[in-house]
TrEMBL record:
Keywords: DNA-binding, Transcription, Transcription regulation. This is FadR family transcriptional regulator. Signal peptide: none annotated. Pfam families: FCD, GntR. It comes from the Bacteria. It comes from Streptomyces parvus. Residues 4-72 form the HTH gntR-type domain. Coiled coil: none annotated. InterPro entries: GntR_C (IPR011711), TF_FadR/GntR_C (IPR008920), Tscrpt_reg_HTH_GntR (IPR000524), WH-like_DNA-bd_sf (IPR036388), WH_DNA-bd_sf (IPR036390). One of its GO terms (molecular function) is DNA binding. SMART domains: FCD, HTH_GNTR.
Amino acid sequence: MARPTLAQDIERRVKDLILDRALGPGDPLPTEPELMELFAAGRVSVREALKALQAMNVVEIRRGFGTFVGSLSLTPFAEGLAFRAVVRHGRGEPGLLELMKVREALETGLVDAVSAGIPAEDLAVLWSLVATMEAEAARDGRVARSTDRAFHLALYASLDNHLLSEVLDAFWAAMDRVRASTDDGHQDPATTCRQHHEIVVAVAAGDGARAAAAVRAHFDGIRTRLERDPARAVARG
């Protein structure tokens, strides 16, 4: 295994510093000269490390103001997922199918917990989004991706798990990025509306098994198309 470069070692030490000082997003970090002194490193290595950490949203460099702990968002993770899937999809490999299966496993595994006690206000949001889907389907002949995405995020909101919400949204962002490169225009708005309606009915009834089956059925169409023709199929919500 190759030894880490000096810049990579500084990356690790900056992360350790954030943890040791219990810093959070937006908190100031030592200045560049202070980091150079703290790590006994040159300016070039420190800057290289900070730029790499900025690309991962670990730090944020504000010109003229200093360096701060970054947002720690999963955007780079989503971009990595998307790029991997696009490259493999373009080579006729099952990159998109793999991405879809991971997302399906997450959603079907969690919807039972949602069904155990979803708050009335969250249920109202889901019904409202289904109504929006139906209106979009009737008006535009398609369901907007933003509405579909909002539905799946709202479905798991009651679990009150910020990391889960970010991970699910990262998968959405990745699949949208893949779609931009491979979209074949396929869409069945009536099926989309019916499937989302069935999910809400099951969740509202507190029937976890039925809800999981409804979520799984929601993925059946894209799974079948991807397994049959991975070079042409496109992810649907």
